[in-house]
Design a protein that fits this description.
It contains 23 helices and six strands. The protein has helices at about 5-15, 20-25, 30-40, 45-50, 55-60, 65-75, 80-90, 90-100, 105-110, 115-125, 130-135, 150-160, 185-190, 195-200, 215-225, 245-260, 280-305, 305-310, 315-320, 320-345, 350-380, 395-425, 430-455, and strands at about 140-145, 170, 180-185, 205-210, 225-230, 235-240. The chain is elongated.
């Protein structure tokens, strides 16, 4: 049954220093739930509340809080408290939190940590942001190949309380080179005296420290892994990336792609909307909006050039919103599919001709569908509209239908080719595709519309 305790009651327990009641409450709840409650409090109150828990439980709660709040809470701790907390944290989360601290705060904390923890933090924090090395943990089980399954299980039994995951054990040689792996199931089902080298799987799916973090997360997703080993340039095992980290990476990358595709700048953090100020939102969104608005003036200039035509054929004005919407929708659909396919490594820039052929076929069908609808609209419902002498409603309908079909065709192909060009140039396809596509489709759409009508009607 869900606990219905209210925030004021927790605050009262903290103020009354009722450690026993706090312990009973926290020990019965998931760390994520506790983090949600305590996020409503001031850092000093959080410190007092967490102090009733053992360091490992404190760490589990703290890592589920907002990053800025984590730093604020650490700043309320004494050097000894901070040292115990950092020692109890998972290796990757510890390194992430350490990087959030200022240089002065880092220098103050490091001397209080054991040598092993200091070196681990320095090593994990040294990898570039966005690389696999920056998100891996050095908290894994490694076994030599010459011990038995029974000995391996005894080792893992001793190491289990301190490891993030024991479902995989990685087999390394004397130089720490990764030569195989075993699952916990392999060890449990094996005969106790069987050598590890006879049990291990030699074909290992792994990543390198310099690989993009999204690529590693996709491997975990593709092969249904609980964790993936990470090796350095010499093929030595240096860490693992777990499935929960992969989920965070995919969520972050999806957020980034979506916001870039909508021409939003900034850091693209997940779950960051409420903590970002209105001014920051304005800065992230205003630049592209302003630039695209200036480029949109070109569309206005095109319309102005054909002002006389619009006076003669007022019915053309009624179809301009449909033209813009059809081009924008079909172009965005095409761009979205290609950007996603590029992100999932389903396609690459070299597939451009295959992709354009496929999108041409789709666009042709969409153009015929929308063109027929537009012609039907003109032919059946355009009787009350006045057109110049010598022209028929059928001629106008054909002109609009052809223009709309050509707009759908061009917008779809632009939507497909722009992300591919961006990927070929080593640019971010999501950044290039949407803002550029919107402007190109608007401008080319109007040119196609007026040029087609002019040619078919002989104006």
């Amino acid at each position: 049954m869900e606990n219905t305790i209210l925030i004021p009651e927790i605050r009262e327990l903290i103020s009354n220093n009722d450690t026993r009641a706090l312990q009973e409450l926290f020990e019965s709840e998931h760390p994520v739930r506790i983090a949600e409650w305590l996020s409503e409090f001031e850092p000093e109150e959080i410190r007092r509340a967490l102090s009733v828990l053992p360091p490992q439980h404190q760490a589990s709660v703290l890592i589920n809080m907002d990053e800025d709040l984590q730093v604020d809470v650490v700043m309320t701790l004494s050097r000894g408290e901070a040292s115990r907390l950092f020692t109890a944290m998972p290796h990757d989360d510890r390194a992430d939190l350490f990087q959030l601290l200022s240089d002065e705060q880092q220098e103050e904390l490091l001397p209080s940590l054991a040598h092993a923890e200091r070196e681990d933090i320095r090593r994990l924090a040294s990898y570039p942001e966005g690389s696999t090395g920056s998100v891996m943990t050095s908290d894994y089980v490694a076994l030599p190949p010459d011990i038995t399954a029974g000995e391996a299980l005894n080792r893992m039994r001793l190491q289990a309380p301190d490891k993030e995951t024991i479902y995989y054990a990685y087999v390394i040689d004397q130089n720490r080179k990764l030569i195989g792996f075993l699952s916990l199931k392999d060890l449990i089902l094996a005969k106790p005296h069987t050598k590890i080298e006879d049990l291990m799987h030699r074909e290992v799916i792994c990543s390198r420290v310099a690989d993009d973090q999204e690529e590693t997360a996709r491997k975990i997703q593709k092969y249904n892994l609980i964790a993936i080993p990470v090796i350095n340039g010499g093929d030595a095992l240096v860490g693992i990336v777990t499935h929960d980290d992969a989920l965070d990476i995919i969520t972050q990358e999806h957020t980034e792609d979506m916001e870039k595709f909508m021409a939003i700048a900034g850091s693209h953090e997940s779950a960051a909307y409420m903590k970002t100020s209105a001014w920051e939102h304005f800065k992230n969104r205003g630049v592209w909006v302003f630039v695209l608005a200036i480029l949109g003036l070109i569309s206005g200039m095109i319309v102005q050039q054909f002002e006389d035509m619009l006076v003669q054929f007022a019915i053309l004005v009624a179809f301009m919103p449909m033209l813009a919407a059809a081009g924008g929708n079909t172009g965005s659909q095409s761009a979205s599919l290609i950007v996603r396919a590029l992100a999932l490594d389903e396609v690459e820039p070299g597939d451009i001709f295959k992709i354009l052929l496929k999108e041409f076929k789709v666009a042709l069908l969409l153009g015929l569908l929308l063109g027929a609808m537009a012609f039907g609209r003109v032919f059946l419902l355009g009787g009350k509209t006045t057109i110049p002498y010598g022209y028929t409603m059928e001629m106008v309908g054909i002109a609009i239908a052809v223009a709309l079909g050509l707009q759908v065709l061009s917008a779809t192909l632009f939507g497909a080719v722009l992300p591919l060009i961006a990927a070929k140039m080593k640019w971010d396809p999501a950044v290039v595709a949407s803002p550029a596509l919107t402007t190109i489709v608007d401008i080319t759409g109007l040119l196609i519309y007026f040029t087609t009508v002019t040619l078919i009607l002989g104006l």
